[in-house]
Amino acid sequence: MTVDSPSTPPFRDPLLPFAKRVEDLLARLTREEKISFLHQFTPAVERLGIAAWRTGQEALHGVAWMGPATVFPQAVGLGATWNPDLVRRIGEAVSREIRAMRARDERVGLNVWAPTVNLLRHPLWGRNEEGYAEDPKLTSAIATAYTHGLRGDHPRYWRTAPVLKHWLAHNNEQDRATSSSSVPPRVLHEYDLRAFRDTVEAGAVAGVMPAYNLVNGRPNHVSPYLREHLRTWTDEELLVCSDAGAPSNLVDAEHYFDTHEAATAAALLAGVDSFTDHGTDGTLITARVRGALTRGLLTEADIDTAVRRQLSVRFRLGEFDPRHDPHAGTGAFDTPAHRALAQEAAEQAIVLLKNDGDLLPLAPDTRLAVVGLLADECKLDWYSGSLLHRSTPLEGLYERFGAERVRFAEGVDRVRLRTAAGAFLAVPVADAPDETRGAEGALDPALLSGRTDLPPVTTDATGTEFALADWGEGVLTLRAPDGRYLSVAEDGYVRASADQPGGWVVQETFRLEPHHDGHLLKHLGTGRHLRVAADGLRVADTGDVFEVVTVERGEDAVARVAGEADVVVVVAGNDPHINGRETEDRTTLLLPEHQQRLLRAARAANPRTVLALVSAYPYAVDAASLPAALWTAHGGQAAGTALARVLAGDVSPAGRLPQTWYADDADLPGLLDYDVIGGRQTYLYFDGSPLFPFGHGLSYASFAYAGLTARVRAGSVLVSCTVGNTGGRPADEVVQLYGRAVDPSVPRPRRELLDHRRLTLAPGETAEVTFEVPLSALEFWDVAHGVRRLEDGPYELLVGASSEDVRLRTTVRPGGRPATPRPLLERGLPAVDFDEQSGIAIVDWTRTAGDAVTPAHDRTAELVYRACDFGPGVTEVTAHLAGEGTLEVSLDGGPVLAALTLDTPTAGPYAYTTRTTGLVTAGVHDVRLTLRGPLRLAHVGFPG
After folding, report:
1. Judging by beta carbons within 10 Å of its beta carbon (0-12, 13-18, 19+), is residue 436 exposed, middle or buried?
2. Quick one: 490 and 606 in the same domain?
3. 165, 238, 576, 713: which one has the fewest Cβ atoms less than 10 Å from its Cβ?
4. What is the pLDDT of residues 390-430, one digit of tens each?
5. Residue 584 maps to a domain
6. Distance between CA 802 and CA 680 in Å, rounded?
7. If you ran DSSP here, which 8-state letter would residue 591 be given?
8. Please, which residues bridge with residue 495 across strands?
C-alpha cells in the first residue's frame, strides 16, 4: 500500500500533521488493542500493519545490555566535564549506535531511558554514578545536551526518544520502594523540579520515568506533579513510563491501594502511559485495566489519552514513515570518530584535585610504580555495554612511558584456603571448548562467566593461590591465577568462571566470618556458606571452617615496587557492582581499609606518591598527606589512555567536581533528609569546610581573570569578563558564574551556579566571556504567597574557577518586589508552607492531591510561619485535621493561645475533620503551631 493510493488511511499519510494521524490511528484501534498498548511490550496489530513495539532502551553512557558498544565515561564523569557540547556529541554518537544496532536486532529500542537527572544531593547514594551533579543548573545543562544529541537535529523526526529518570526526589536505595522523601515546597520548586523543568523546556525530551519512592507520602507513580508541573512545561505529548515493577509495588510493597485494579487506574489517571511490570508478560497489567474499566475506575477515554501519548512518540520516531525517516540507514557503530570521542570524554572528565610542587605532569624519563586494585582494571557498571576496546591505567602507562619504565603491584593479598582436614581449595584446570579460546588459545573469561559445565572448585594437597581483594565492609572477591573470579552458579557450585563481579545479584562476593580458630566463608549472593562436598565446593546451610594462609600481603608487594620508583601512582576506588550500587547505598565516605593500607604502604616507601581515584562517587581521603591526587569516574573504554595522557602532561586536566567532596561522614545529613535548605546540604547551603568544593579542579596552566562588568537589561543580567592563559601550555579553563542574594528575607543559597563556560586557551591567549542570566534565575519560591518571586535588593555576582575559588565579584540591583506579610485572611495557612520546622514529616493530604504535615515518628513537632497578617482582626482559628492529638497555636514565641484536639482517632489518615476554637488577634505576627501525637494537619484558617 502506498500513500498515493485512495485507500491509504490518513495515519499513513506523511503529509498530514502528526496529531491528525495519531487521532486517525487511535480511532481504528479496538478497545482491546488499546489496552494491550499499555504494557511495556506492545504487541503488533497485524490487521493495520502496526509492528510490535516496546518502551525502554538503556543508554546512560552508551548502549547498555545489548552486547558490545562504545562505552563512554559514567554519567557523573560526563558531569565532571562541565562541557555540554561534548555531551551533546556523545548523545549523538550513542543514538547513531542505537540505530545501527536496531538495524540488525529489533530488540534494540528507540525509546531511550536516559539520562538520569536526579540530583546528587547525598554522596552515599548507591546510584551516584548515574547522575550528573548536585546542582540543578549544571545537571540540566548536561542533560539537555545529552537529550539533544539523542534526539537529533531534524525538525520533524527524532533519531531516538529520550525519557528522563527518575521523577522525583529519588536519592536513596535503602527502602527505595517504600521510603518517602519529605520535600518542602521551596526545595521542590528551587531544587528537585528545576533540573527536570529546564531539560523538558529545552525541547528534546520524550517523557519521564517516575521513581520507586514516595514523595510527601504519595508514590511517584500516582503523583499529581505529573499533571500540575511536568505536562505544563511543553506542548509536546510526553510519554510517562513506569519503572520496572513499580505498578505492582503500589499494592504489594507500599500498600497504598488495596487492589491492583485501583492502583493501575490511579497510575493511569495520574499520567502513567506505559506499565513496565512482569517482564514481557502483559497479561496481568491488561487484566487489571479491564478490571478497572468494569468497576468504573477508568473510562475508555482515559486509555485513549495514554495510547495517544505513546503513538505521538512512535510517529516522531518515523515508524510509520520508513521512506521519509531521515535517520533510517544512518546508524554508525564503533567508528574511529566514536573511539576518539570516548577518549576525548575520558580525558575531559579527569579532575586534578591537588598538585603540590612539580610532581605532575610526570617527566618522560620517570620510573613509575603503578599499584592498587584498580590499576589494571577497566570496570563496567550496571548500565554499561560490553567493551569493544579496553584500556586500563596500567596499559595506558605502559604505552605512554614504556613497559621497561613501569613496575606493577596490584596489592591484593595472596592467600590459600585450608580446610580443617588439611587440604587446600584448588581450581581445576578447565578443559574449555575451542569457542572459549581467544586468538592465541587463551581462555576468554567473558565467555566463561555463568557457565555450569566447568568443574567446581575442589581440594588438593597444595591448593590454588587466590588473589583476595577486600572492597570494604568485609566484602571480598577471590580470583584464580588465570584471572577468573570464584562465582556461584544456579546449581549452587563454586567455580572459577567469571571475568568480573557483576549482575543484578552479584555471585562473586564473599565474606570471611570468624569462627573458632578459623573462618566461615559466606557467599553473599545466596546468603549461604561454603562447604566442601564429595563432588566439589558448594553453598550449603552449614559451612566448613577454613584457615586463611597468607602467602603475601598486598602492602608488602606495593612497598617493594614503590621503593624502586621515582613516582608511585596508587590507583584506588570502587567496583561499581560492589557495595555502593543500585539497590545498595554506601555507609561511609572512607576508602576501604584494604586500599588505605596500600596507600599508606606506598607513601611510606616513597613520598612522591600520586593518588588516582577511579570511582563512581566522592571519598574522604587524607589529602593533606599527599603531594598530588586526581579523580575520575569509571572512564569507559579509553579510561587508561586518558589517565596516562593527563599524568604525562599531553593533556592539561580541566575536569571540575560536579558535587561537594565532604571531609568527614559527620558532615553528611541523613540519607533520607531531603530538605537541602533546612539540612544545609550541598554546596548551596553547606557552611562547613569541604575536602574539595563544588566546581573544584586544577590545571597545569594558570589563568588570570579581569574586567568584570554586569548590567541589567530587559529581564536579564549581562555579565562579562576576560580570562587569559598565563601558563606555558594550552589548556582548558572552566569559568564559573555564581550569584547570591546579599540580604535575603529567607534562607537563600550561599552561592548558586548561574552559568559556566569551558574554553580552550593557548599560552598567552585571552578571551572575553559573556553570560546572559535571566532574572528568573535569581528568584525563589515564596511560600507565603505560593509564587516565584524576585526579591528586591542587591545580588552579588561571583566569577571564578570553583564555588570557593572566586576571582572577581560585583553587585547588581535588578529590581524586584519586597517581602510582604502572608495574606492570612485570603489564604489561611497551608500547613506545608512553613518557614521553619522541627520534627515534621510531609505527607499526602489525599491519595490524589495536596500535602499535609505530621510529626515524624508520631511525636511532637513545631512549625513557624513568619510575618502573618491578621488584618483588622480575627476571632477564631479553624484547623483541618486527621488522626489523633492536639494542635497548639501561639504567636511571636509567646504562650499557647488556642488548642484544637482530636480525642478519638479519625476513621483513617484521609478522614479529615474541622476543629474550631477562639483566637482573638490583629496585625502582623509570627505564628507557631505545635503538633502533639499522630496528628495530620492540612490547613489552618483564621475567619475574621
Report:
1. middle
2. no
3. 713
4. 999 999 999 999 999 999 999 999 999 999 999 999 999 87
5. yes
6. 19
7. P
8. 487
